[in-house]
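Checked the freezer inventory, then went back to the computational side. Two predictions to log before the end of the day. The first one is the construct we discussed on Monday; recording sequence and tokens without edits.
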Amino acid sequence: MKIKLVLGGILLVVLGVISGFYASTSSVVQTIPEKDSTVEDISFSKLVPVKTFNQSESKAKNVILLIGDGMSISQITGYRILKGGPNSRIAMDKFPYTGIVLTHSHDAPITDSASSATAYSTGSKTNNRYLGMDSDKNYLENLTEKLDQHGFVSSLIATSEISHATPAAFVAHVESRWNTDEISSQIFDSNVAVLLGGGRKIFLPESLGGVRKDNRNLLEEIKSSELLVTTKNELNEFNMDQPGRVFGLFSDDHLRDIETPDNHSKEPSLSNMLQFAIDRSAYYQGKGCKGFFIMAEGSQVDWAGHVNNLDYLRREMEDLDGAVALALEHAIQSKDTLVIVTADHETGGLLLESDGIYTKDSIKFSFNTAIGQGNHTGVPVPVYAYGPGAENFTGTLDNTDIYRAILASLEISSSSGSCIKY
């Protein structure tokens, strides 16, 4: 197999200087370089090393998994510096256990979100674009399905469409992440109790302004059999005593669409949605569920890398880190919740560089994969953990290890069946 290695770069375009925008007067220069590159043959064994995990006596009752799509150390470092300078600390810096995660897919050294999220949700490598099935297209039981049979209630949250690759990997089984008719139908048929994000068009037929080609009006089916909320106010005012699964679809497409800025105040942040999922999980625990699993994705960190937009990246990292702070505080207070923060891959090849004068109070941000259209890279991503079982998220892990480490943190020795049919 051949892989392209970037060897060096020449500055090509200066996009702008952000001066005085944050707390200090330091300048930030964003650049996109022209690159030298070469293609090299590599050895690519399909056999993934198996990591051994500690079976701790103290088990987690709940798990919150936060995924920053497209986020690696450079995005975290860049946000920290932009927020408060090199000596500041963000929520992700407060976790006691850290490691690195290798992200390659079954069929390529560079993963997409579908393959990497499937590794997180099933513990198995698969091909890029596949969701919830292995490289031979065999069905893989995902984490929400497994936990449902052991009496846990699950929630999926995203700032993209809820049918997008990462959330879909925790609920769907299709050979292409673009099969949104199938994905949304499987979401509707699942036992996931709370689904929050964008994507109303995915649930509507083309005849009603949606994108479904099967002519099925899933939005009407949700209204007739489940609970639908469509604005931030409806989410905040939701009556938790109502039985039923909750579908929060706050935008026709993804949240915070740049073309619909007037709608942003009506859409919840990642923290808003996470708090709702925690509160709704408590409702189900009062009905007999023994714990909860929540996956919350900061989807658009990735998109900021794809379009090489530093201010977009700052905004999405701020939204994600706010949800991380909320999850960590919940875990500290509850003492029975495992919180994991990681990413599916890095996007954009972001570098933080000197502009050649090491005594200047400035930093240069360079996106290094493509001009105006960034790509995924193969660099590892970080993982942070707090709570029962957190010690297993250290050292070097494969992305399939995240699934096994989550299961090792929970008490799932006996099957009690689904708990959400109330």
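The second is the one RB wanted added to the comparison set:
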Amino acid sequence: MNNLALEACINKEFSPYLIKDYCPTGLQIQGKEQVKKIILGVTASQALIDAAVEEKADALLVHHGLFWKNEPIAIRGIKYKRIKALIKNDINLYGYHLPLDLHRSLGNNAQLGQLFNVIETQFNQNDPSDFMFHGVLKNPMRSEDFNAFLSQIFNRTPLHIKDNAPQIIKKIAWCSGAAQDMIEDAIELGVDAYISGEISERITHIARENGIHYFAAGHHATERYGIQALGKWLEKNYGLEVKFIDINNPV
């Protein structure tokens, strides 16, 4: 498949022009014209780029790409090494950040809803830029059982703030990555628990004082699923060879 045609197909599905992002969306580093094999990953780290080179990939498709807002524009240090490796090996780099969080079926949050076994995942139908999803668990759980359930999903134990929160968790809200400050939106929905990737010092107090469970499950851990869903979509619809490589990140 032509590398620019691949970008156009993904853009048509994800409508990135509707979303104000912190980085370029789509093809960030242009490589070979024809794409057959794609390596998928969360972040365009040197380790993932090296893996793509080893796999003789034509393209690297990630959630966290390069060229972030407010970072130095000089191409030096680790940025130089990453870009050099991509260009030297003629590998296309595609990055889909916020569009991959927001997509209502293939996105990180939509995929998490399936993993959480929510009866009916809900989101703000009137605002396509609203990141937070919510719903009712098919099987309500005691808080310690839910934490164990999340640990199994993410292969890591979430940080759990539980003071003054209900013993049984029925209704939850979630948003992947660094969405800890959406906890107050979750509180307005009357949920028992809010799940995100990261936590800030102030979130502990907000959770305690509002009697809500907060689970910080890891930024990387909560954002592994959208990119894999996108890969399966490309494989099914365009016959491309895709392979997900998970570079360990404890954060």
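For RB: DSSP finds ten helices and ten strands in the chain. The domain at 108-222 is CATH 3.40.1390.30 (Udp-n-acetylmuramoylalanyl-d-glutamate--2,6- Diaminopimelate Ligase; Chain: A, domain 1). Let me know if you want it refolded.
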